Amino acid sequence: MFIKLSDNAIFRKTAEHEGILINMVTREKVTVNETGFFFLSYVDDTLQDSEEIVTKLSQQISDVSTDIIRNDFMEFMTALKMENMVEMDENKDNMTYYPLKHLHIEITMECNERCIHCYLPNKLKSKGDQLSFSDFCKIVDEFVTLGGDDITLSGGEPLKHPDFIKMLDYCNSKNLVINILSNLTLMNDELIAKLRDYNIGTIQTSIYSLKPAIHDSITLKKDSLTKTITALEKLYKNGFTLQIACPVFTENFGETESLIKYAKEKDILLKINGMLLPQIDGNTDFKTKSTLNQNQKQMLLRSLLENKNQYTNEQLSRCSTKSNDLCKNPALYLEQPVCSAGIDNCSISSTGQVYPCTEWTGFKIGDINLNSLKEIWERSEQLKQLRAINKRKNYKKCLSCEALDYCKVCLMLNQAENCGEILQISKNTCNEAFMTKDVLEKTR
Question: Which UniProt keywords apply (predicted)?
């Protein structure tokens, strides 16, 4: 028998050894005691063989026979199935499913800044394609039925959408965690007060330098840094969880140290990386001109490592124990995805185009103008092909690579750099992995 939590169910701890199961569609709730809590600690939204779970339970309870544990566990799971809290089936193939946990929606292309590195061409920001409120609500409804946990609203500049508050209200009515990506220049006291009514996860903004001349030369808007910082400080005082993104390229190279210090003082998460994306129309002029060279990337990484306890950044987040995982359980490791794109998250543009992730606009998996989000997530042939490719076993050269623990394969970069060949690893990915390994080993 194979078992998993229902795609619509979430399990929350309410006390030391007690919890509650909630079906996000029916709103039904099931309170579980200490024994139920113990059983559910071994069940999640991934498909598992019930016998493997029973074996794990038996290892924790030595004074009870395996048969009794099995009977009690299966009786409990069967009861939860009747409440639509878990799914059970003898045939694994009937249950192969990917819960959509995270959804990123670009609600508008319109933006009041003209950032020189942005993947959206300025003509599209001026045109301002917007997702209608009715389409937005339909998407959110389907997202919840697919197991959605949190939603990210971005643009363009999301605050430019006339229905932004209505969209927040609707997400809140569905008990979703709401993340917002904004330049904050349109944020005001009234909106900040309103945001306190919602279940806000993270509010992220971009700062390219703490020097107005440099930051404003990148946004091409006078006083943009002052407006962003002013709003950020107000949000900080109101207790919101904040994040600063700082893409680094030649125009702001050398500006990160003061930003790291600022983020540390405010205890704000700081995300720094040196990756530039081509524009969605295929234009790579800025990417070609302004991407850091290898020496600059090494200098940036060394600088960041000196402050590694003060922020998070893409390079350091790549360091892992993948080689140990491969040795401990090769069968499990080889079936795992190399990238989360299309596995538990996807992105929808303001025109309704659906992509595996926010950055991967070169790989469309559907269109909500033609099919529902549920149909796309469950039946898209492009997505099925991607999931079949997106397994570690398909990247055999990586398995024996000495930089394995320092690498994070990005399928979008693979496709972009290799004429559409997703299975061929991006050279930039390899170079950065070895560079990170080299710098880390020298600084330890």
Answer: Iron, Iron-sulfur, Metal-binding, S-adenosyl-L-methionine
